[in-house]
Structure formats: structure tokens, C-alpha cells
Amino acid sequence: MCQMNSTNITITVDNELKRKMEELKQVNWSEVARAAFEEKIKKEKRKQIAQDIKAIREKDRSNWSGSEEVRKWRDARR
């Protein structure tokens, strides 16, 4: 296992969820939380990138076409 710098955080769950978690002592809840946080970060970053791309496309009102550009470069090589 690799050594990493760690920080503790506190999360709040309701009593029923805590009881259910305690029943599953074999589960590493810290690892479950870390994985969930990582997945959420990835999803949010993808969402932000998609929004950024959309904003760039909206600013660019030209009639540029990627497929037409590829065709132009292919035809120029002949």
C-alpha cells in the first residue's frame, strides 16, 4: 500500500444509516467514501468541461465544419 498524505473530514449521516453501516463491519467505509468522492469529482469535471465547450461553441458563430476542413486537407495532399 502506498503512503499518502491524509486529512480527516467529518460527514453526517442519519442514525438509521449509521446503524446499517455498523452492521457491515467488514466494509471499509472510508474507502467507500473516498471512491464516491473521486467519482463525483470526475463527473463534475466532465460536466464543467462540457459546459466550457458549449460556451466556446456558442461564441463561435462561424460556419466552420470539421468534416469540411478534413476534406480540404485531404484534397490538398493529392
Keywords:
3 helices; 67% helix; mainly alpha; 78 residues
Give your account of this protein's structure.
With 78 residues, this protein is an all-alpha fold. Helix content is 67%, strand content 0%. It is built from three helices and no strands. The chain has helices at residues 15-23, 29-59, 66-77. The longest helix has 31 residues, at 29-59. The relative contact order is 0.05. The mean pLDDT is 92.
Short description:
This protein is mainly α and 78 residues long. The chain is built from 3 helices and no strands.
Q: Largest sheet, if any?
A: none
How much of the sequence lies in strands comes to under 5%
State the low-pLDDT regions, or none.
none
The quaternary state of the protein chains shown equals single chain
Q: Which structural class do the helices and strands define?
A: mainly alpha
State the helical fraction: 55-70%
Count of alpha/pi helices: 3
Count of individual beta strands: 0
**In angstroms, what separates the terminal alpha carbons?**
56 Å
Q: What sort of overall outline do the alpha carbons produce when their principal axes are compared?
A: elongated
